[in-house]
Known about the structure:
The complex is a heterodimer of chains A (400) and B (421). In chain A, helix 1 runs parallel beside helix 3 (85-96). In chain A, helix 6 links the parallel strand 4 (141-142) and strand 5 (164-168). Chain A is an alpha/beta fold and 400 residues long. Chain A has helices at residues 33-61, 74-83, 85-96, 112-115, 117-135, 151-159, 171-174, 198-205, 220-228, 256-268, 278-284, 307-310, 313-324, 326-332, 335-345, 348-351, 357-364, 373-399; strands at 3-10, 68-72, 100-102, 141-142, 164-168, 192-196, 236-242, 274-275. Chain A is globular, with a radius of gyration of 21 Å. Chain A is built from 18 helices and eight strands. In chain A, the strands form two sheets. In chain A, strands 1, 2, 3, 7 and 8 form a five-stranded parallel sheet that branches. Chain B is α/β, with parallel strands linked by helices and 421 residues long. Chain B is built from 14 helices and 15 strands. A seven-stranded parallel sheet of chain B has the order 3-2-1-6-7-8-9, sandwiched between helices. In chain B, strand 1, helix 1 and strand 2 (35-40) form a beta-alpha-beta unit. The chains are: A alpha/beta (400), B alpha/beta (421). The A-B interface holds A 20-22, 312-314, 316-317, 355, 357, 371-375, 377-378, 381-382 and B 266, 270, 358-359, 361-362, 369-370, 372-374, 376-377, 380-384, 386-388, 390-391.
Amino acid sequence: MPVVCLCFEVHQPRRLRRYAIFDVDRVHDYEDREANLEILNRVADRCYLPANRILSGLVRRHAGRFSIAFSISGTLLDQLGNHRSDVLDSFQELARTGAVEFLCETDCHSLAFLFSRKEFRRQVNSHKKRIQALFGQTPRTFRNTELIYNNDLARTAEKMNFRTVLAEGADRLLAGRSCNAPYRPPGCGRLKLLLRNYRFSDDIAFRFNDREWPEHPLTAAKFAGRLHRVDAAEAVISLYMDYETFGEHHPRETGIFEFLEALPGEILKHPDFCFQTPSQAAAGFEPVAALDAPDFVSWADEDRGLTAWLGNAMQNDAIRTLYKMEPQVARRNDPELQDAWRMLQVSDHFYYMCTKWLADGDVHQHFNPYPSPYDAYINYMNILDDFSRQLSRKTGAGKG
Amino acid sequence: MRILMFGWEFPPFMSGGLGTACFGMTRALAALGHEITFVLPRAGETAEPTHVRLVPASGTAAPEPGREEPFVFRGLSIRSVDSVLRPYLSGSRYPSLLSGSPGSRFMAISGDYGADLISEVIRYGRVAGVLAKEHPCDVIHAHDWMTVFAGIEAARISGRPLILHIHALEFDRSGENVNQDIYDIERYGLEAADRVIAVSHYTKNVMIERYGISPEKITVVHNAVARREAGGVYHVEKDPRRKTVLFLGRITFQKGPDYFVEAAARVLREMPDATFVMAGAGDMMTQMVERVAALGIGIRFHFTGFLRGEDVERAFALSDLYVMPSVSEPFGISPLEAMLYDVPVIISRQSGVSEVLRHALKVDFWNVEELAGKIMAVLKYPPLAAELVEKSREALRHIRWEYAAEKILGVYETCLNRKET
Lengths: 400, 421
């Protein structure tokens, strides 16, 4: 029985304010609260609320045959908790249907796995606690920030008691094998690996409104038909995309909501098909093979590696400088500094500094608050300068 | 194709970007097999380059007085150099002009920029028809307002199409205090030309909005920069502790030197070891020196005066950052030259070159705070400078005179086809 896993990444960063070098030592508030609230409200009204409403209806209509998964970053949960409890309520309402799995990730949508395992575990555990508290379920499926994945990540996830992990179905990982099947990461016992089918996912996420694309306009029936043609022996098709695809990346006028509303019904017209959460799908199928991932893969850009965040000298400088401060932040044990440090870890800051313009640059522009990657880096480093001074000042004051 | 070009600058006889641009584009056109005769006000000091035939306008015999209508434009008229109408002549600055014997038919033209420029421009225009007869051509290509009369006269005599190439307009040079005569000459030329080439969309828009020229008539051809010759790199050891920030250009309103000085003062408050260099000369120079003194930053702010040749290369090579805070810059080749020396650049958003440089730091020229912040960022964060340099190298591979030359040829062909049909 072929299974469809429909997963959504739900995340909004905490964007940083315009911070001039002359603000160093003078201004210690780094967040652009106004912009963040404005974008939060926009996305809540254009995407989260209407899409949640539709999904809620779909769960009722296709009772037992339709389920979904969300990975909601802690960074967004904080913002919703502070400003949009109505949106949080609607996610909780979905949680109560029992048809929704909440995935675990790094709380502040960070790249901590690459730079500090200790910090990584702390963030994963704090996200897990949040999911338990807000949605009443203990997450069993892990997905790292932007699907950054390798063998080591799988082993770490298994040690942290996860049963399923998600990764990008990158061609270089699969080397000709199908992405529509569960795999076993080498060195892992019971952990199962589900792979995102990027072709199907990106048909919706990127190409839905592309008039140059031969499949345009993409109807739910057409899309379901393509899914139905997948070899039934290949069991699990993972569709994974930004939740903002609905109503934000593709505005309402494109018909994206009608598409979402009609899609499950069209897929379920085939009696063998059903929707499952990643945990259900992983439990129901044995891995077809081991899948070796010695190098990192992610879901970003054409190269599906780390270059979207760590592709140039500025990005590397910024993030290494940030993580070098970890011992100092820990020593201070000051909630405000801790919060600022986490806010500075949000992966989006490094994404804004990406200079690979040609093929992928346009995607980097979405929600990008900076006119250029250089401006992003300058702003970030100015803030980091102040933050490091704050750290040493408070350390000094503590000693005195 | 035979191209008759009228210009005012050509290396080594030049004072700015106009000569550099003319050199770069003619070399690329010549490399594509085209034959260029380049008319200058007077001959250069050194041997002529091989890729164009350089022809001095000065010393050419003007048409016999009386045989043709006297040259009249908006009340400015002149028959020959010894005409009584010499309102702009300043004997002390233009001795070469006076050296011609009274009554001579041979035009004396200095090619300098000065108070007498308009009458020089008229004299230059007077001999253009003669030169057009001597040098048969397929198209006439004139650069900037100084050559408008020459281009029109050559086109009238030869019947060939006129392409007017605009590198700078009076609004760029003088802001709102335009010299009405020059504006009128520009407008006259833009209207009379068969096609107009603009060095940027920025300049094209000024022509549309301020001169009422139809957008369809204007083609944008961005300037480029000539490759550095192999082995010709000027190499110096930089002191990593002493960071140098360079301004290089005419010290005039158009180039925004005052914003550079104010930003320098702002930076020096935070980074007292930085060094600022203002290379060039111009009518705002003394004002700038006084301002630097008043700000008390003279110890870290240096003026070099006008630089030529190797000194320009040396200035670029010694710098850690090049800043072009122009108020109005139709194009601005010098940031590209800085990039050839692996020097990161900050350019004003109000510049044509910013249209072709995605990977450059950009500021609004009036925003001294932003400019100062970005200068400090480049000096303070080495990975930023490294990334800018790396991306600049990539960008320079696509900013080539060969591409510009092909676009220019496209403009020529449009004119020729139209003339024939």
